[in-house]
Amino acid sequence: MAGAPLLSELMPWSVPGLRAGRGWVRSAHPDILAARWRRLAEAEPPLRAELFRASRSRTVDSAVPQLPGQRTSTRRLSQEPGPAPEPVRVRHGAFDRQWLLADQRLLDQPRPELWRVADGRQLFATVQPYDAGEAPSLAFSTELPDGARPKGLGRIHPLYRRPGGLDPNLTPGLTAFLRRRLGTGVRPEDLLAWIAAVTAQSAARTGEDVPVPLPTDPALWAEGLALGRRVLWLHTYGERFATELGPLRMPGGRRPFVRERVTGLPDALDHDAEDDSLLIGTGRLSPVARSAWEFHAAGEPVLSRWFTERCADPEAQPGTLEALGLTGWPQQYTADLVDLVTVLTQLAELRPSLADLTTRAADGGITTDDLSAAGVLPSPEHSRRPASVLLHHEEGPDGQFALL
Fold first, then answer.
1. CB-CB contact of 70 with 103 (8 Å)
2. d(CA 309, CA 397)
């Protein structure tokens, strides 16, 4: 893949992941967040400060503006917590859909520039750590990603720099160059689909620099778009390309079903290879292919990590907000698990086709030198900075108007 352009050259604007600063502001279930907020808001000021868990960036006396697009109080938490923030669905890591209390008073580094462009048209690409195995280099989501991964945070590349699918986050001249070379129209989502196809398995790289081979063959481009749309469809749980591919499902009626119901709060997850079942405490879900059970992202088995995120935190001290959780396994967890298994199974089945595509794309493809000779690279400085977005009323600290 020598000479292939990098993701940071093709999609020049990127943002580091969110730093919450405290674990209790995120959860797999919104009811848990509601209970935690009630306890924080109803506590007397000294206890409220203790429950909050101050950091260098945030204390209960921090004065900060609203997050763009969110309706939360901007009064200091020590004085007036205000109504409960509405939990917002976020992507935690590569595939885990969780909930976050979207209140800037609670988050150390919430990245407001990302919140300004998060809407129903947006797609996010988040860099995953290098993995010598078959893990994807990028994760894609419609939900705002937190960039979380085992060691540090991954950089987040939005597809659009403005809400409403406006101002693509692509280096100027790139789509026109590809249109001339390939003899076909190239939309922003087409290019992201191609990127999804050729980064579905890790390639040797340094740090956040993900190589993206670009083709010169129109037939290969068309093949990559078909595969990449399916990858994006799976990563977004069927929210993208639904008109073309339909709702998220397993082909051939292979959808996993609950064979034995989960009772209580399970403390173990395992896979029975003899009958392709996933064992969730007392429950049993099948069929679940071993390829889904063994699917890794960011150096971790996805299903095991997903389950751990829904178990009681063994390090949470009694009386803390982190210790507040569910006492039973909600049906929503099982429904979410079925969707996750559906996604991982089909991504694993696509691996041979995606690996073959990537190999052929890297052979004689468009290089960084080609893009430089055409004046597409290097990306201009302004394309690496966030666009000016003033669509939201953003209240400043202590109820004042924000200075824009």
1. yes
2. 33
CA angle 272, 28, 245 (to 5 degrees): 70
Cα 223 to chain centroid, rounded: 25
Would you say residue 404 has pLDDT above 50? no
- What distances in angstroms separate CA 50 from CA 23, 40, 44, 55, 386, one per listed residue? 14, 9, 10, 11, 36
Q: Alpha-carbon distance 190 to 168, whole Å?
A: 12
Q: In the 8-state DSSP scheme, what is residue 36? A: H
Q: Across-strand partners of 272?
A: 277
The winner for highest mean pLDDT among 208-212, 315-319, 335-339 is: 335-339
pLDDT tens digits for 232-264? 999 999 999 999 999 999 988 788 999 999 999
C-alpha torsion sign, points 105, 111, 116, 122: negative
Reported as a single tens digit per residue, the pLDDT across 298-307 is 999 999 999 9
Is there a contact between 342 and 249 (Cβ–Cβ < 8 Å)?
Answer: yes
Strands 87-92 and 96-101, by their bridges, are antiparallel
The alpha carbons of the chain give a radius of gyration, in whole angstroms, of: 22
DSSP 3-state of 181: helix
DSSP 380: P
The answer to whether residue 403 scores a pLDDT higher than 50 is no
- Residue linked to tokens 């705002």: 144
- Residues with Cβ within 8 Å of 308's Cβ and at least 6 positions away in sequence, in order, are none
Residue type, 33: L
Strand, helix or coil for residue 148: strand
Distance CA 199, CA 277 (A): 30
* Cα-based distances in Å from 221 to 4, 201, 213, 245, 369: 15, 18, 11, 19, 20
The Cα-based distances of 387 to 13, 166, 167, 168 in angstroms read 9, 11, 9, 11
